[in-house]
Design a protein that fits this description.
The chain has 331 residues and is mainly beta. The protein has one domain (14-327): Tachylectin-2, Chain A, CATH 2.115.10.20. Helices cover 4% and strands 45% of the residues. It binds beta-D-mannopyranose. Beta-D-mannopyranose binds next to loops.
Length: 331
């Protein structure tokens, strides 16, 4: 597969913008973060895996908490002295780990979607915070579901999320891991319904496995820009600390109808982000790009944040007009 990241995507020259070197507590991998502009600053909540690393790789030893960082420009980050959230603080024996946070600001409050590993399956949670110190959990979906992202405003009177359930029984052997992107709606961010299939994995260009939402969608006059990730399984071992790793993750982008986001009105026919640099190709799981944040600046620059190789956090930028042309296959 010789796809290439399109030329209009510019990787930040100081990538990775966040790595363990910036974290003043136990940290082995910093990745799959959520981003927002909040109260005049950029804020980032990142996944921190610790307790095992490249040298002492062993299943079962690893732990995860969520870290917090602030920035004035969205590029240079300073990490707070302590993690901001940890499943251990919830005092709930069912919940083992929270990870892969996604941030959406709605009416002045910051909402955080996160994956939850529990003793009885993987679930998708939504919490709200105003200070990144106290988090109030609003809902946690039934298993198996994760990769949730919230739209930043109500649409036709209802909140809306994209999500990625993981159905195993209903699919044929050929599509066993072909998980799709769905949506649900809610009057209050607690009760969710009207679930609908938005994009089936087999309809995602360049993908032979599963897909999922990337960053919370961003509004443009032409539709909601929504980043995705998608997976290509290969029949050889990719460079990684994880023995036998064979799934390459790419970033993709689509455009959803403003009034009815279940309707896809444009989708990039090629990957938007292809793992190409050392920090994307080598790490815990090499060849992984996992977009989790997108910020549209007033000058039309779009900041795209992504976890790379499940090890570091990176930034790429693009002009919003190029992204809009890309989803319409005009470039
Ligand atoms: C997914 C999740 C992500 C991870 C990705 C690549 O299934 O576990 O957290 O980044 O795999 O390893």
């Amino acid at each position: 597969m010789d796809w290439k990241t399109p030329d209009f995507i510019k990787r930040c020259p100081t990538n990775p913008i966040l790595d363990t070197g910036k974290v003043p507590y136990d940290a082995a991998q910093i990745f799959n973060a959520g981003f927002a502009r909040y109260n005049g600053r950029y804020v980032c909540v990142f996944r921190n895996d610790y307790g095992r690393g490249k040298e002492d790789f062993a299943w079962g030893k690893g732990k995860t908490n969520l870290g917090l960082a602030f920035s004035d420009d969205g590029i240079n980050w300073s990490v707070e002295s302590r993690p901001c959230w940890d499943a251990a603080w919830l005092n709930d024996k069912e919940i083992r780990r929270i990870y892969d946070p996604r941030l959406t600001v709605i009416d002045g409050k910051c909402y955080i979607c996160f994956a939850v590993d529990t003793c009885h399956g993987v679930r998708g949670g939504i919490a709200v915070t105003e200070d990144f110190d106290k988090f109030e959990i609003l809902s946690i979906a039934v298993p198996e579901n994760r990769n949730m992202v919230l739209f930043p405003e109500k649409i036709n009177g209802l909140y809306m999320r994209l999500e990625r359930p993981m159905p195993v029984y209903g699919r044929s052997a050929q599509f066993k891991e072909s998980f799709d992107i769905w949506s649900s709606k809610s009057p209050d961010l607690k009760f969710w319904g009207e679930s609908a299939l938005v994009l089936a994995a087999e309809n995602m260009p360049c993908c032979n496995c599963k897909i999922g939402p990337g960053a919370p969608p961003v509004k443009t006059p032409y539709g909601w820009l929504a980043l995705t990730h998608f997976v290509n399984k290969v029949d050889y071992e990719l460079k990684a600390w994880h023995p036998g790793w064979n799934k390459a993750y790419y970033g993709g982008v689509m455009l959803l109808d403003l009034e009815d986001p279940n309707k896809i009105i444009g989708i990039g026919q090629a990957p938007l982000l292809v793992p190409e640099t050392d920090y994307e190709l080598d790490g815990f799981r090499g060849s992984v790009i996992f977009p989790g944040g997108m910020i549209l600046e007033d000058n039309g620059e779009v900041k795209i944040y992504y976890g790379a190789a499940d090890t570091v956090e990176c930034l790429a930028t693009a002009d919003v007009n190029d992204l809009l042309k890309f989803v319409k296959n005009e470039i």
